[in-house]
Amino acid sequence: MIILGIESSCDETSAAVFETDSGLLSNVVASQTIHEKFGGVVPELASRAHQATIVATVSQALEEAHIDRSQIDHIAVTQGPGLIGALLVGVSFARGLALQLGCSIRGINHVDAHLFASFLEEQHPAFPFLGLVVSGGHTQIMKVTAADRLFVLGKTRDDAAGEAFDKIGKMLGLAYPAGKRMDELAIDANPDFYHFPRSMLKQGLDFSFSGLKTAVLYYLQSQEESFVEQHKSDIIASVIAAITDVLVAKLDSAFLQTGIVDWVVAGGVSANSVLRTKLEEKAKQRGARLFIPRPAFCTDNAAMIAAYASLLPVAKYSHSLKPFASYASSQQGS
Ligand code: KG4
Ligand code: ZN
What we know:
Layout: E1 2-7, E2 12-19, E3 23-31, H1 43-64, E4 74-80, H2 84-101, E5 104-109, H3 110-116, E6 129-134, E7 139-146, E8 149-155, H4 161-171, H5 179-186, H6 210-221, H7 225-230, H8 232-258, E9 262-266, H9 273-286, E10 289-291, H10 295-298, H11 303-309, E11 332-333
Parallel strand pairs: 1-4, 4-5, 6-9, 8-11, 9-10
Antiparallel strand pairs: 1-2, 2-3, 6-7, 7-8
Helix pairs in contact: 1-2, 3-11, 4-6, 4-8, 5-8, 8-9
The structure holds 5'-O-[(R)-(carboxyoxy)(hydroxy)phosphoryl]adenosine (KG4) and zinc ion.
Residues 110, 114, 135, 267, 300 line the site of zinc ion.
């Protein structure tokens, strides 16, 4: 079966072709740069950019896969969560194409799909596994017992981990999105330079990052500008230490509660080098297997949408497919 995956939930327009026997044939990602000067994603601009790019992105994905669109058997499109206008572009395009081709279509939950990016790699997890999604919009821990059985164990009560990176990066004068740059600046810097709070460390599996953001703001306001400039890398390393300590501790708590030894970590923040090192150490200590997709599959992409769809039952074409803005899935439970 040939599956066309389409992703347009935030600021990446992406299309991928996945063949159930041979795997991924193409994955094209068009990142929107227009938001950089605003320090964050501007929803209306994102929708317009998706609209301008989606036809060319899908065409390129088909071309790179050497597939004619008449060969598409199934379309998998990100249905939510995400920016509603941005999602509408992908969903409307997918519905139109499915109608024209007479093929089946399925809406895919973006956050759940992040975890199934791990199935694009040769070594992938077995069910049940624990999933930690850490992206710009979401931070949540899930127990996954089957492709269509995901149970949310904990999630952020305010900012997502990536959002904390981006907002703190902005305070330090870094361009959006700041996560990758902060990671680079922190190499060889001192993570113990300043002790920022580790919020809700011992309180269940939910997260909170807004307190850290405020703590960093107050800290920066209390220091001379020249001091901050001089110690920028050490401050960043200290922030990264606080964020990653919490992420690792929560995943470890989920392990202690469930005993599940296959761990999947995905989403843009899972590209962070400090997080990867700490997770590897923790997994080793617990005898767990850690699966982190390669960086290109950690950030938003349509390959994960198509790969996840290949594990789910094929739905019939539905005129009623509508995007949803916040995490809500028939697959989640308690
Ligand atoms: O998964 P993603 O591409 O998009 C969303 O679904 O949100 O994640 C983007 C987020 C941004 O907040 C970005 O700053 C963060 O991932 N990010 C990183 C790194 N690379 C990307 N954060 C920390 N360290 C990195 N190396
Ligand atoms: Zn994402």
